[in-house]
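Lines hold sequence, tokenised fold; shown next:
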Amino acid sequence: MATICGIDDAGRGPVIGPMVIAGIVIDEKDLSKLKELGVKDSKLLTPKQRELIYNKLIKTVKRYKVIKIPPEEIDKYVLSEETNLNWLEADKMAEVINTLRPDQVIVD
């Protein structure tokens, strides 16, 4: 059975606070369960809805990984001449993928 990983970020470009990258892995046959949970763009959900879905989601998926990137690390990437915020996000998403090892990845 093929596994699918969905990855998204929150807090990209924060003035204060972390950026968060999260990924989940689910069996392809269980994708309909995400729809049943009401999973959609988190910006369209209230904080309470996000919390309720999160608690159900982590019980539904096979594996998940959350990375919190502190402002200091964000600043290092943004202020560097060799890297930028896109590189930071790509590096952290690669870390999520390498940890979860899915068959397929969908990045928002």
In short: The chain has a mean pLDDT of 91.
